[in-house]
Every structure is written in structure tokens, then in C-alpha cells.
Design a protein that fits this description.
The protein has helices at 9-32, 35-51, 62-88, 92-95, 123-129, 134-146, 150-157, 161-174, 185-197, 200-205, 225-235, 290-297; strands spanning 207-214, 221-223, 241-249, 252-260, 267-275, 280-286. The protein is α+β, with helices and mostly antiparallel strands.
Length: 305
């Protein structure tokens, strides 16, 4: 009996691309720090993969092979970004005083099943990744998350195995262990209820005594419940009412906030990514106008009805 014909290369690659698109986007997001940049890198990686398909000798190695291509695409994009900034200075978004580099929130999280299970996508982890050099970041992600050996990482990055091991050591020394435990659902539900009820005191009561609240891209950090309370009670009276939508960003509970003022409609205001267990111990608050822009990237409506 004749063997069934092997599927054409185009069909094989299409199936591979469809299966890996989501995880490649999360990988490129960890490398680049932005959702659109990650999407652009995935598109380029798949195009390069199609062109280089003949170099894939063993289909069992397809996953690390495509990760290697995607990583090189990201490194190329980061080098171009650095050259562009050196030639033309910061972008318009970076000119205003008080701004700092920031990590864009990623809609959703990591699947609970499959090859990515248990991988860290939390904002704090991705932010610390961006404190590393691009090569050290790539080495850590390929080794610890994708599962490549040091030799395979070296091949992927066109460096020696010893250089790959050295990059890994530097990355691990700079990154403390991250607690990826989710925020308690009861605290999130209560957080939402407090905003919807316009009850600032109830909201403050949900916060951990040592809470840290940051407001990207501004260089502004509030430490401790008293500081956060002073800020919240100061801005709360500017608005008539709030409405919320529960989301997930970076695998963390997230609240999209709509606000109404001057008798108008409920318009997009801010995006709150929450961390901690029980009392909320961390809030990354993307304030307006950035918060409203990010809410649009999450596919949220321009008006809360």
C-alpha cells in the first residue's frame, strides 16, 4: 500500500504559523515591550520563516527554529530603534518632561495548557526584563521559557555557548524570583464595586498597607496606603461617577475605568492592572490620556452605555 502523500511545504508552514502565532506574539512582546511592535515582529518572523523553510531539516525542531527567527527579528528591530533614537532623538511621546520608558499592557495572558503553561507575562517581570541588555533578555527567554539549551541559544543568537551561558548568568543575577500568584478574585470584585459606587473610602480599605502604585509613563510612584489615599481623595471629586469593565492584562486582573464629568457621557479614563493576594498590593495605573488610548487597543467601546 502506498504511503499517503506528504502535505506540501506551504500547508505545513501555514499550520505551524497558525499554531504558534499567539505564543510568538507573547515572546516578541517580552522582547519589545509593546503590543504593536510585537505584532510587527511576528509578521516579519513568519515571512522570514517562510523564506528560510528549506533550512528546517527536522520538523521536530520547528518550534525552537521559529522562536530563533522571531528573536533575531526582535533584536534587529531593537537595534534599528536605538539607531533611530541616536539620530533623531526621542519620539514626540518622550519629549515631555517627567516621562520615562514604560511597558505597554498585553491583553490576556498565557494559556493554562500547552507549551507556554507557567510562563511569566506579568508586568513586573516584563519591566525587569527591559532592565537587561537585549541579548541577555533574549538568552533568558530562549533558555528559561522556550527550553533551549545554552548551545542552542548560542546558535540562535550567533554567539558562542560560553557567551550564551554568561548572558544567562547576568540575566538571572539581575532578576529576582517573581511571584506569579494571581490577585484574589474577591479583592478585584470589591475594587470594581467601590469604583462603581463612587466610594473612595471603600476603595482605600481594599489596599495593602504597603501598596505601590505607579502611573506609566510618568515618573510618579505612590508608596503606602496613606500616599495612595491622598492621591485618590484629591482626584475623586473631579468626576461625577465611574463605571468599570473587568479585563485580564499580562495574566493579571485588570479594570478598565470609564468616568463622567460635567453631565457628559461615561468616557474611557484609565486602565488599572492589579497585583497581590487578598489586599491589593500593586496597581499599575495607566492614566488619561494614555489609559483611554490603551482601552481602545483592548477593543473596548468609546462610550460606556
Amino acid at each position: 500500500m502506498d504511503k499517503p502523500a506528504a502535505p506540501p511545504a506551504s500547508a505545513t508552514f501555514s499550520a505551524l504559523a497558525d499554531a504558534m502565532r499567539g505564543e510568538l506574539k507573547r515572546h516578541c512582546y517580552r522582547m519589545m515591550g509593546g503590543v504593536q511592535d510585537a505584532e510587527d515582529c511576528v509578521q516579519e518572523a513568519l515571512l522570514r520563516g517562510w523564506r528560510e523553510l528549506a533550512s528546517l531539516r527536522d520538523e521536530a525542531m520547528a518550534r525552537p527554529w521559529l522562536y530563533s527567527i522571531a528573536t533575531r527579528v526582535c533584536l534587529d528591530a531593537l537595534r534599528k530603534r536605538k539607531r533611530r533614537q541616536a539620530l533623531f532623538g526621542p519620539s514626540l511621546d518622550e519629549i515631555e518632561p517627567g516621562l520615562e520608558p514604560w511597558i505597554e499592557p498585553f491583553p490576556g495572558g498565557v494559556p493554562s495548557e500547552g507549551p507556554e503553561r507557567g510562563q511569566n507575562l506579568r508586568l513586573a517581570f516584563v519591566s525587569m526584563l527591559h532592565g537587561l541588555s537585549a541579548r541577555a533578555r533574549a538568552a533568558l527567554l530562549l533558555h528559561d521559557l522556550v527550553g533551549m539549551t545554552a548551545a542552542e541559544v548560542g546558535t540562535a543568537l550567533s554567539i558562542s555557548t560560553d557567551a550564551a551561558r554568561s548572558a544567562l548568568q547576568r540575566a538571572r543575577a539581575a532578576l529576582p524570583l517573581q511571584d506569579a500568584s494571581p490577585t484574589d478574585d474577591v479583592a478585584v470584585e470589591s475594587y470594581i464595586k467601590a469604583w462603581n459606587a463612587g466610594d473612595v473610602n471603600a476603595l482605600i480599605g481594599l489596599l495593602h498597607q504597603d501598596i505601590v502604585m505607579t502611573m506609566p509613563p510618568w515618573q510618579r510612584t505612590f508608596r503606602g496606603r496613606d500616599e495612595v489615599a491622598r492621591f485618590m481623595t484629591g482626584v475623586w471629586p473631579r468626576y461625577e461617577a465611574f463605571r468599570t469593565i473587568a479585563l485580564v492584562a499580562n495574566g493579571q486582573p485588570t479594570v478598565a475605568l470609564y468616568a463622567k464629568r460635567d453631565g457628559g457621557k461615561f468616557l474611557p479614563h484609565s486602565l488599572h492592572v492589579l497585583g497581590g493576594r487578598g489586599p491589593v498590593s500593586e496597581i499599575v495605573l495607566y492614566a488619561p490620556p494614555l489609559g483611554a488610548q490603551l482601552m481602545a487597543t483592548f477593543g473596548l467601546p468609546p462610550v460606556y452605555e
